[in-house]
Amino acid sequence: xxxxxxxxxxxxxxxxxxxxxxxxxxxxxxxxxxxxxxxxxxxxxxxxxxxxxxxxxxxxxxxxxxxxxxxxxxxxxxxxxxxxxxxxxxxxxxxxxxxxxxxxxxxxxxxxxxxxxxxxxxxxxxxxxxxxxxxxxxxxxxxxxxxxxxxxxxxxxxxxxxxxxxxxxxxxxxxxxxxxxxxxxxxxxxxxxxxxxxxxxxxxxxxxxxxxxxxxxxxxxxxxxxxxxxxxxxxxxxxxxxxxxxxxxxxxxxxxxxxxxxxxxxxxxxxxxxxxxxxxxxxxxxxxxxxxxxxxxxxxxxxx
Length: 304
Prior knowledge:
6% helix, globular, nine-stranded antiparallel sheet, mainly beta
């Protein structure tokens, strides 16, 4: 990997989530771990070869309901995928993709599991309700083709052609290595080498995140529902990182959240099923947002 593209195991000084200030860890902890009293998760259960699901819940410090997918990168025929370029009229920073819901993304590209990915614009009441041109914020790569160019201080999740996976804290606008097959960008590192990254923003929202196990064997998709007082109120950045660790992640990246937060899987009947309870339209439960892109995975069916 190019020197400017250093994975987290080689790059320890990490900043807080954009648009927060950059903090340097200088010995000792600067952020306490959330209390895991009453934090619970189920065992992993298989839904496809190499894909398992689990759920988590907490009553303190507030109601949180969490959905997780674990992907075995060594499993046969596992293939990661992200939204490709707009087929007609592609233009950098103008029309990079066409907005879609997560279930639409899953069905259109024959995926078995998917979540939303990059932050994007334009952003408004009408754009989140309809398909249309979207400009992704930060790097996005689909089947080896750059969909959205790298942006400074936008960390990325990378899948290489040899199936290696990494989360990288990129500090410039250089192009990714040529052997990157799939990539999506977030706004901040949540977990670095098993340690929660320090944060200054304590806002509570629905969250979407992606993580990687210590040995790179597993990838984790995690969503936390929010803005639903009697069901799930959401999580802070630090709490999202703690959930990643709870499910097994060693490194973790925050993706677009809020009304975008959606996780979908394909049922045995071949239909898309939304696992969580999104609040895409006016914070109304079970309503979907049109996102700039998605991150998904293909896998084989379980043996009968």
